[in-house]
Amino acid sequence: MINVLKVEFIKLKTSSLIAIIVMITLAPLFNGVSVSDKLSNIGSNPNTLEAIYDFSINGYTLVILPTIIIVTFAIIMRFERVSGGMKEILTLPVTKKQLFLSKLFTGVLLIMLSIFLFFTVIIIVAFLKNGITEKSILLILSRGVSIFLVSLGFMAVQFFLSLSYENISVPLGLGFCFLIPSFLLSDSRYKIFYPWSYMTAVNSSNGFDRNSIIMITISILIFLIVNILGYFTFNRKDIC
After folding, report:
1. Which keywords are on file for this protein (predicted)?
2. How many domains does the chain have?
3. What would you measure as the largest C-alpha separation in the chain, in angstroms?
């Protein structure tokens, strides 16, 4: 399993995927820092950390993070499908279980990288601007953990789609189709019924409140159920 993961990391090094994730992740932060500076200049004296967060998080969780999830899982599966790579790998002493888990782990790790980078940069910028408090750090970090946990269900569905369809346009297209309704539902009372809206819905949570815990629980269950289904489907599938 370790050797399979090493191969995955080598593929990532030779691709531009990590660089793309980093650049896209940082994009909404420019808006947050810009608005925070403008508020400081007009004398409104905002909490710098929370101001940067408030003016960048919606763009990140509504558009950027879902896009990263959709594209990441599509691309890491695409790596193996070019020129029959999947079939070639399985001729080596590598089981389908190892391949499945290595792809899933790699995808989840890349999403974790994006979320970690986003919140780390927010904290660093706020620290440099002397606008940071212990209370605000704990609140921001708890939201970061919540966003990661509620995104697990989305990740599982995208991984399943990327496993199931060889044509990369199918998981990409379906992923964005599933995402569009979240623009309307993330702030509505029906958000609990649509897991794709969870990443934006937890933005305004006060730590791990009741709604956050419900969304996290549902997302983890979706992650487990979909990946178990995906594994058995992949294990039975003939790789041509």
Report:
1. Membrane, Transmembrane, Transmembrane helix
2. 1
3. 66
What's the CA gap between 27 and 118, in Å, rounded?
A: 10
Q: How far apart are CA 148 and CA 169, in angstroms?
A: 25
Task: With beta carbons less than 8 A apart as the criterion, state whether 149 and 112 touch.
Answer: no
Give the burial string for 121-138 (b: 16+ CB within 10 Å, else e). Answer: bbbebbeebebbeeebbe
Q: How is the chain split among helix, strand and coil, in percent rounded to 5?
A: 80, 0, 20
User: Which pLDDT tens digit goes with each residue over 10-52?
Assistant: 777 778 889 999 999 998 888 777 766 665 555 555 566 677 7
CB 218 within 8 A of CB 195: yes
Residue 218's region, left for phi above 0, alpha for psi from -120 to 50, else beta, is: alpha
Q: How far is CA 7 from CA 2, 15, 93, 125, in A?
A: 9, 13, 13, 35
Taking the C-alpha atoms of residue 240 and residue 80, their distance in angstroms, rounded to an integer, is 12
* Rounded Cα gap, residues 215 and 196, in angstroms: 10
pLDDT, tens only, 129-169: 776 777 778 888 888 999 999 999 999 999 999 988 888 89
For residues 147 and 56, is the Cβ–Cβ distance under 8 A? Answer: no
Integer angstrom CA distances of residue 151 from 115, 189, 212? 10, 19, 12
